[in-house]
């Protein structure tokens, strides 16, 4: 029994030694980029921050019944529960928020908002100047 125990002790101490190699004996790790030894010289500036027209200087509509451009940011949340645009533009709140109320066409005969017009940015786009190249457009009115 004593023999078996001491044999077990030897096996245990041996297996403990055969763990990880120590740092001194490990080969140095050399990582190389697949692109080779090329220094990165090209950097790209961040996109310009969008600016919006100041009050009363937005572009006028170009043609009759054109959805007017949004003269401010257009990132107000529109979710199934809440429409961030209507908090200022609904018929009831617009005067208090000093905003233009939604067009009559957006309102049903009973005076409630017509949900067909719920997703405002489907038709209205922000007039933002963020210095990005403008996509060619051949539209004429
Ligand atoms: C915090 C209040 C507020 C919120 C929220 C808001 N607006 Fe406005 N919006 C205004 C005000 C105030 C004006 C008028 C600015 C001016 O006279 O230049 C305006 C102007 C506009 C106009 C131009 C109206 C016209 O007759 O020329 C449009 C279109 C518009 N907003 C759409 C939107 C849309 C779409 C959203 C949601 C993405 C939105 N607004 C969210 C306050 C708001
Ligand atoms: C299906 C397209 C469409 C959607 C969606 C839409 N609009 Fe419009 N909106 C228009 C058009 C078109 C006009 C111009 C109406 C005209 O002059 O006959 C307009 C006009 C307006 C005006 C100017 C009203 C005025 O008296 O000068 C405001 C403000 C406005 N919309 C806000 C909104 C808001 C806020 C939403 C979302 C809750 C919205 N619109 C959704 C098409 C849309």
Question: How would you describe this structure to a colleague?
Answer:
- This protein has 141 residues and is an all-alpha fold.
- The chain has a domain at 53-133: Orthogonal Bundle (Flavocytochrome C3, Chain A, domain 2).
- It is 17% helix and 0% strand.
- It is built from three helices and no strands.
- It has helices at 2-17, 86-89, 94-97.
- It starts with a helix and ends in a 44-residue tail after the last helix.
- The protein binds heme C (2 copies).
- It is found in: Periplasm.
- Belongs to the NapB family.
- Residues 1-23 form the signal peptide.
Structural class: mainly alpha
How many distinct helices?
Answer: 3
CATH architecture tag of the domain at 53-133: Orthogonal Bundle
Number of strands: 0
Distance between the termini: 103 Å
Short description:
By secondary structure, the chain is mainly alpha-helical. The protein has 3 helices and no strands.
Features:
141 residues, Flavocytochrome C3, Chain A, domain 2, mainly alpha, binds heme C
Write the layout of secondary structure elements.
Layout lengths: L1 H16 L68 H4 L4 H4 L44
């Amino acid at each position: 029994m004593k023999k078996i125990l001491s044999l077990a002790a030897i096996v245990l101490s041996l297996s403990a030694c055969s763990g990880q190699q120590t740092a001194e004996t490990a080969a140095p790790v050399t990582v190389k980029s697949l692109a080779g030894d090329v220094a990165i010289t090209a950097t790209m500036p961040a996109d310009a921050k969008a600016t919006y027209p100041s009050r009363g200087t937005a572009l006028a509509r170009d043609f009759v019944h054109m959805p007017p451009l949004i003269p401010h940011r257009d990132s107000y949340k529109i979710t199934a529960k809440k429409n961030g645009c209507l908090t200022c533009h609904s018929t009831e709140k617009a005067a208090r928020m000093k905003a233009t109320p939604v067009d009559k066409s957006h309102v049903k005969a009973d005076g409630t908002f017509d949900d067909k017009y719920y997703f405002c940015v489907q038709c209205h786009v922000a007039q933002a100047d963020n210095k990005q190249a403008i996509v060619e457009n051949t539209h004429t009115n």
